[in-house]
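User: For a teaching handout, I'd like to show students what a predicted protein-ligand complex looks like in token form. I'll give you the sequence and the SMILES for glutathione. Please answer with just the structure.
Assistant: Understood, here is the input followed by the structure.
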Amino acid sequence: MKLYLNGTSPFARLARATALELDLSTIEMEWVDPWSDQAELLIVNPLSRVPALADDSGDVLTETLLIVRHLIENAKRDSELRTKDMRTITELGVAYGMMELAFAFTIHKKHCGESGTTLQNRRKSSLRRGLEVMEAVVAEDMRWSLSRLCLWIALDYIRFREVLDEATLDNYPSLDKFFTAHQDRAALSSTAFS
Ligand SMILES: N[C@@H](CCC(=O)N[C@@H](CS)C(=O)NCC(=O)O)C(=O)O
């Protein structure tokens, strides 16, 4: 199996970190630049996006949540990531949405500069509401799951791209504690944004 990825994509990091959490060491990493329409990536994903997962028989999956679901369902090893618990799935929707918002904010800023302030402010407000909800959720318990993996990477991406002021994240003590508690997990420390 081959995972197409790059070093700054939070989505690709979620797919890669999932594979690491599941000990799927046989997946080959194929580093590409999705922004330059590389022929190699276009063959597997005509939309030129990462992550994309190609299996040995040539079948391809795109879209992060479909990829991670496939990896988890087909892994031989049992894992905290394997759950059908509705609470985890609900959390995952919010955490993945936060990742999307932070990514959209970053790409907008890169390509459109300071224009579109109304839209960018809306994204930031939604992100803050997501942070508030997740602050309450992790304050209840710090257990690990697929939604928490997604949340951790979303938080790291917000910091990496400076989507919100550092001071804003400091307003969420439980999220801060959660972030610190898991930062040494191999699947996270070995996949830092680059
Ligand atoms: N909804 C997609 C988002 C994937 C995505 O937007 N990937 C970005 C990198 S973070 C990309 O490859 N962008 C290239 C482009 O849009 O041309 C998923 O969940 O996989």
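For the handout, you might add this sentence: The first strand starts at residue 2 and ends at 5.
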